[in-house]
Amino acid sequence: MQASNGKKRKLKRRLLTFRQHLLENYALNTVNTLLRPILTIYKYFEIELFPLPPVNKKNVTTSEPIRFSDLPDKELLRKALSVASPLMSAIICFMVSSGCAKREVLNLTIGEYIKALSDYTDKKDIYEIIEDLGDAENVVPTFNIRRQKRKDRKRGRIVVCRLLQQLQNRIGFRT
Q: The dihedral of CA 165, 167, 169, 174: what is its sign?
């Protein structure tokens, strides 16, 4: 499938306009992350594209770094805890005390919690652990957490391949 020169220029112009829109609203890494799957789809369907000109990094707006004064203080955290549900209060307290990001906290499992308490009890059932430890205040669970900021690249490729397969099936395109 090949497009005429006019269509190529129109497609390139649209991609550049879209990229400019993204650059005005998002950080450069986010722009690249959002644009890459679109270009991949065009390449997969063998639609010839002229390379897009590189982004001038001097003209890209970057967000200001987070300063210490930008972080919530104790008073703000107390207000948040006073209106939060018990589950959200537990999440806030865990994030503040551990320094974990939202993704790490939300991906924690009961099994990891049981493992973190292995220094204090030999029990493997969560209800038995709660009964065994009771209201002990000197218990400090030690989690072995790996930072999960980036998605697994292999999983990302699988998602793109599935997307391409769904597109093929939807438009009836066969290789």
A: negative
What's at 122, amino acid-wise? D
State the DSSP code for 63. Answer: P
**Number of other residues whose CB lies within 10 A of the CB of residue 39:** 14
pLDDT in tens, 54-108: 988 887 877 778 788 888 889 999 999 999 888 888 888 888 888 888 888 888 8
Q: Closest Cα to residue 62, out of 101, 39, 31?
A: 31
86 is written with which tokens?
């018990």
**What predicted TM-score, i.e. pTM, was given to this entire model?**
0.51
Rounded to 10 deg, the angle between the 153-171 and 28-44 helix axes is 40
Q: What is the DSSP letter of 29?
A: H
DSSP code, position 125: S
